[in-house]
Structures are given as C-alpha cells and as structure tokens.
Amino acid sequence: MVKSFVWPSFFFIFCSCAFSNIALGIEQIQYLNMLTHEMLEILQRGENLADLCSSAKNEQEYNSCKEHQLQPEEWNINLYSRPSKASSRIGQINFRITPGKDVTLNFQSPDGKFEAFTVDEASMNLAYEAYLYQSIVQKKGSWVQLPANPFPQAVWMDINAPRGEGLGLKHATRNVAIRDALKPHIIYILKKDLKVSNKNEKTPRVFPKDTSIILLQVTKQIIKFRQEISSDIPCSSKLRPSQEKPSTFSTDAKSFLDVDGHLILKKKYPLGC
C-alpha cells in the first residue's frame, strides 16, 4: 500500500500533462469494449466442448468435433479517416480469437503490414469477466473515434457494421459496448507518470508510474483523488476511518489522458470492481 505524508487536506491542482493535442468530443471519459458477445461465445467453446460435441458417437467423432470447435477465428474491423465509409481507409484491426485461450489483436496498415495492438485495459478471465477496453476520443451516431497509437492517426470505426467490417452490434442485445471508463471509490494504478501543479507549491508534484490512487469523486470535468492508504477497501463505496491523512487533489478529467487520448489508469483490483 502507498502511504502519503500529512499535508493540508485539499489542493486544487492543474495537470501539466500534454493532453492539449486532443479534442475530446465526448462529455465523459469513456471506453469501447471491443470484445463482443459473439466473440465471447467463441472463446467459451473451449469450456463447452461436452455440450458442443454431445452428439459424437465415439472417441474419433469427439476428437474431430473438438478439433473443429477449437479452430481460431479471425475478425477484421475497417478503420477510416472520418465517420464515413466514403472517407479514406486507414487500415484494419485484425482479431484472432482462439477458443479456450485468448484474443490477439493487430493493426494492419493499407500496405499489408501488421503491428501488435494492445488495448488500454483487458481481461480474459472467462470465469468472471472478459473485456477489451479501448479509449474513445469522439462519437458520432454508430461511429466511434479511437486515438492514435498504434494507428498513424486517430481513426473511426462503425461499431454497428456487420462482422468483417465492424463489431456487428446493430442487432446485439447483450452487449454494452460503450461505458464510462472511470468510477468513484475504485483504486487505480497509473500507467504513466502524472505531473501536477498547484498555486501553493513552487515545485510540481509528480505521481510516478505504478502509483496507486483512489478516485473520490468523478464528474464530467473534474476528478477528485488521493493516493491509496492501508485502510482502503478495494471496490467499496465506504471509506474506513484512518489515522492517515493523505492529501486530496482535484484536477481536470483530461489529466488522466495521454497526448493521444489514451487513459493512463487501470484498475488495481479488476476482479469484483
């Protein structure tokens, strides 16, 4: 647990992070869950072989069914420069879904080159919760804009477009694709250094990468937070009384985005939160 020194209980701060390059076109920092229900069903085949191959009459038929059910499937999503299929295509995201294992992603550029694509936050825990969360820069109808990196620029995708072009969510009933990325009373870890300043201190405060913080209040513009202390309870809305008096900070929500618009926080205790 990270403990802090005793400071005055509240500072209003601003972040000197370079987030001015992005124009966030959404009211609140949000994630797109790129793991659809259909993809999840493919992943779960590895755990459902007894049912999927129940009609097998002998071991040979069962093994043949098993081999068929465990075959990886690929899924491509087209990326565009603007929220229109008439705009120039920037490339594709290639999903390789391996039943019983995981999902790997690559960005394929128009010239056919592949680059590994790691989403901002992921879980392949099929027993509890599986997701592939990527930060969103803007939304327009069924189109969402994802930040640059690994893409050469911010890109648009139509999440309602059918499989082979988009996420195929137009007729999905069990997928909540877009959700708020930050919630109060959750403990997060910084994926990058966070440099903040306030009018009462000459030297900016630096929260280094891997610092644990708890969000106390989340609004559309302002986030109130402090460092994690030993009495904090993961995923609980109740704060235990403590002898520790950590500094409390309040900052612009965009402070937690990098220069491209990726969220620089991830849950410290993902299970149960």
| Shape estimate | globular
Instruction: Profile the largest sheet.
Output: 8 strands, mixed
Please state how the strands of the largest beta sheet are arranged side by side. Answer: 15-14-1-18-17-16-13-19
Structural class computed from helices and strand pairing: mainly beta
- Beta-strand residue fraction: 25-35%
Write the H/E string, N to C.
EEHHHEEEEEEEEEEEEEEEEE
- N/C terminus separation: 18 Å
Instruction: Report the strand count.
Output: 19
Tell me the number of structural domains. 2
Rg, Cα atoms, Å: 22 Å
Helix content: under 10%
Average residue-wise pLDDT: 83
Our count of helices gives 3
- Poorly predicted ranges: 1-21
How would you sum up this structure, described in words?
The chain has an eight-stranded mixed sheet with strand order 15-14-1-18-17-16-13-19, with no helix packed on it. Strands 7-8-2-12 form a four-stranded antiparallel sheet, with no helix packed on it. It starts with 9 loop residues before the first strand and ends in a 6-residue tail after the last strand. Strand 9 (138-140) and strand 10 form a beta hairpin. The chain has two domains: 10-23 and 183-267, no CATH class; 30-38 and 74-180, no CATH class. The chain is mainly beta and 273 residues long. The longest helix has 11 residues, at 59-69. 8% of the residues lie in helices and 35% in strands. The model is unreliable at 1-21 (pLDDT under 50). It contains three helices and 19 strands. It is globular and about 75 Å long.
